[in-house]
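Researcher: Here's a chain I'd like modeled. Treat it as a single chain, no partners, no ligands.
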Amino acid sequence: MRKLTYYVACSLDGFIGDPKGDASSMFQFVDGEYAAFMKSEYPETIPSVAREAFGVAGVPNKRFDTVIQGLGSYRLALDTGITSPYAHLREIVATSSLTESPDPNVELVAGDLVGRVRELKAEDGPLGIWLCGGANIAGQLADEIDELVIKSYPQVYGSGMPMFGTDFAVRDFALEDVRTFGNGVVVRTYTRKR
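Model: Modeled as a single isolated chain. Structure tokens:
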């Protein structure tokens, strides 16, 4: 069975973006040793338009073959004219407001997102599914998440978009790995305790 991984960047106080979801203040930390880590360990999470600049154009996907995101995350690309931000992956966008996909590589899911994720997890294949964001989608899929990879950036937001937009419920995870970088970024990997 394939696993669903919430691979997400957040502030020290657990926000994945400002109140409108903008996380551009975190981009300054993608440099040097940390950028090398991203390129070697998670090359498929680099958007298609940046893959050549990062030196990963043509690099095979290492961990994921599918990405799931909400319309808020997807709209960041759409607003710049990019209809398939992760063209090297199968792209799924959870939305009830877009009724027609702007790109043949992008599947829209308006209804049962949990059911669609369970179908994806049941597929054969060595690679997993990347939950890109945002908070609402992570909240809907909280019980389906098998792994968390939290990239904590050395910033405090005070308020903003939380990692999970859901009601209170305790879900236990086990710490598997911690990587620290000279720029202050900490990447923690957790697996779901079931």
